Amino acid sequence: MSDHIDLTEAALDEQALDDDPADAVTEPTALDRKINAHFPGAVVRKDLVKAVKGNAIVPSYVLEYLLGQFAATDDEATIQEGIEKVRRILAEHYVHRNESELVKSKIREKGRFRIIDRVSVTLNEKDDVYQASFANLGISGVVVDPSTVNANQKLLVGGVWCLCDIEYFHSDDARLVPWILGRLQPIQMSSFDYAGYLAARAEFTTDEWIELLIQSIGFNPEMFGRRAKMLQLIRLIPFVERNYNLVELGPKGTGKSHIYSEFSPHGMLISGGEITVPKLFVNNANGKIGLLGYWDVVAFDEFAGKKKRADKALVDIMKNYMANKSFSRGVETLGAEASMVFVGNTSHTVPYMLKHSDLFDELPESYHDSAYLDRLHFYIPGWEIDTIRSEMFCGGYGFVVDYIAEVLKSMRDLDYSDRYQRYFTLGSDISTRDRDGIHKTFSGLMKLLYPHEQATAEEIEEILHFAVEGRKRVKDQILRIDDTMAAVKFGYKPLAGEWTAVTTLEEDEYPRHYHRGGPDAVDDGGDLTDPIGRAPGAVGAEAVALPGAITAELFQGQRDFVENQRGLSYESLLMPYLRGASEIELHDPYIRMSHQGRNLVELLALIASAKDPADEVKFKLFTVLEAAPEYQKKQLQMLNQIMEGSAKQGIEMEVAKDPGGHDRWIRTDNGWRINLGRGLDIFQKQDGGWLEFGSTRQEFRQVRAFGVTYIREVK
Fold it and tell me: Would the pLDDT of 16 be above 50?
């Protein structure tokens, strides 16, 4: 055959087979150039933050503010010059705590010196003056002009990073502080062009815009699937939506709190154990307003922990605020717009929590309360988000943090919650509180992704589906805690079309535990993701049955699987259809890199273990060779190695050029054709090596979004 690939003629030398070719890309990508063209001066290369940070303990937005002044360009010479300027500024003006005395000396000797420090202000009622404290410099009692405080009221609550000119003037009067504040400039933008922002957004496709936002957070979008990107963006909704109540529980190390401490000067991250009524709401002793009165976002870190004790009065005030957007100061009722975020770690797996309790099980007892939980608008499934690794950070261009922070802040006054109603309606039995949660999430995602309001019906549906799913996750767990609440059918309907029921990913993965004892409980023990209805976890010998019996029960039609789903394998998806076949064709143009070769080996191993050792199976692979000679050589080596291993197990493997373009499918001589949306490449990248469970069992791996169609061919 002319399309046959003779692997025996390939030059086979000893060479490591890397997952990806070493690529030292130094030039900006096409998207990077487009970003710079439409947002000149408002974007920065994200890897520069690490280059300039050194040992300065400052938030990323402080460093990006400085980089935005000197390195917001794609011109390499200007970037390098800007980096050096920022390094000099940090070296000369950032105050390290262990060098505070040296900085004080500089101020004294020079008379006036500029510093970068975190500044907080208190009112000295006795002397009727505002006084500033400098966190790293270690000085306090510095008099601040009331006009400065009025213009920057966050100085009164938690403190703000600032550029300050400090003067020194000694007096014989011991009561006078020798330090004088000459100038104070908060590290954030003073203004921006919102109309220009909207016009520039219209120049980007949705995929390009999402990549820009993910790069602005600091991540490499290539390391995330579509669903994973959306979950990252939902973390931004509190910055763009007023009074948004968000919870995220999941394993350690997934970056749950990072965005609230580093991304915006308008957010405040505090420890869950530091929550008090005076700090959060109001100190009734002196009338001082707490954090919620000044910050756009207040996030509570380390919020989970069953044994943690919480003040019941605090919980009651918090419930009232989350529902009514107000709190009391004596007889006076005060409104506030701060969004609240609760992040914490889980200590059990999702199926364990579903089987033994609920997905809020880790919360302190006082918060494990249906009335409190019902005020949450969205539950981010933190267990779906990967542990942060160094290769996940990007070197591409993203918005300077203080620029995008001001953009998001400016959109808090807008309401996009009804934009879906041109295309869809929600279920009639969805309660007002459920509807509010869905609306606020939808509005937030619209502002983030489509601030110019140019979205197709399909794009609207995508974010509406996410909004419904996140609120459903909250409500379904409340029903486990409080059986007096009525169950709700979550979904939506096109103005002219069929009803779409929305499920959560964990509901699809673990239906037996998710619906325990409820009206929708699965009573046959079957795993909904298994095409043949086999019990969850059944593999190998447990899955073997007579070919005739299996064929009678095999599913025909289309099955779709969502990103991050677990519990899937070639064993459950493909082997029921491949057993008994003596000839199998696989058309997959992407058997090129080592992880794709491993996928093929895993399928061949299943075929080998399912057949009688005395039988032989013919397996023909149709694929596409790499264009570059050096990469093609590695690909041929890999395929030759797989072919030799297959022969030892009774599989006669042949490799041929695939004439079919990008289509991916399997055909067997026992009458089945299986169309594979992504071919064999359905699993997300594994980075933990052999120490990860997913390295030995496919069921433990997360998948990418894909579809499979099973077609019975009648001969």
Answer: no
Question: How far is 468 from 162, CA to CA, in rounded Å?
Answer: 41
Is residue 318 over pLDDT 70?
A: yes
Helix or strand run (H / E) with residue 347: none
The three-class DSSP label of residue 274 is helix
CA–CA separation, 37 vs 53, rounded Å?
27
Residue 134 CB burial class (10 angstroms; 0-12, 13-18, ≥19):
buried
Band of pLDDT at residue 202, cut at 50, 70 and 90 = very high
Query: Which residue has 């669903």 as its token pair?
Result: 227
CA-to-CA separations, 260 to 213, 271, 339, 470, 682, in angstroms, rounded: 16, 12, 11, 20, 33
Under 8 Å CB-to-CB from 257, ≥6 apart: which residues?
269, 299, 301, 343
Sign, Cα dihedral of 509, 514, 520, 526: positive
Cβ atoms 592, 557 nearer than 8 A = no
Q: Is the pTM of this model over 0.85?
A: no
Whether residue 456 is predicted with pLDDT greater than 90 in this model: the reply is yes
Give the pLDDT confidence of 538-567 residue by residue, as tens digits.
333 333 333 333 445 899 999 999 999 999
Q: pLDDT digits over 572-616, tens only?
A: 999 999 999 999 999 999 899 888 999 999 999 999 999 888 888
Question: Helix/strand/coil (H, E, C) string of 28-51?
Answer: CCHHHHHHHHHCCCCEEECCHHHH
- State the Cα–Cα distance between residues 378 and 299, nearest whole angstrom: 14
DSSP assignment string, 634-674: HHHHHHHHHHHHHHHTTEEEEEEE--STT--EEEETTSEEE
More confident of the two residues 22 and 206: 206
Return the exposure string of 576-613: e unless at least 16 CB atoms fall within 10 Å of the residue's CB, then b: bbbbbbeebbbbbbbbbbeebbbbbeebbebbbebbee
CA 37 to chain CA centroid, Å, is: 27
Q: How many Å apart are CA 634 and CA 16, to the nearest integer? A: 8
Residue 79: both structure tokens together: 């970037």
Give the residue among 203, 349, 186 at the shortest CA–CA distance from 265. Answer: 186
**Are 419 and 453 contacting, i.e. CB atoms less than 8 angstroms apart?**
yes
Instruction: Give the torsion sign (CA, 39, 40, 42, 44).
Output: positive
Establish how many alpha carbons lie within 13 A of residue 156's alpha carbon, considering only the half-sphere containing its beta carbon: 19
C-alpha distances in Å from residue 163, one per residue of 98, 116, 146: 19, 5, 18
Please give the Cα distance from 417 to 308 (Å, whole number): 36
Mean pLDDT over the full length of the chain: 85
Tell me the C-alpha distance between 341 and 298, whole Å: 6
What is residue 189's predicted lDDT score, i.e. its pLDDT?
66
Using alpha carbons only, give the angle 529, 356, 314 rounded to the nearest 5 degrees: 115
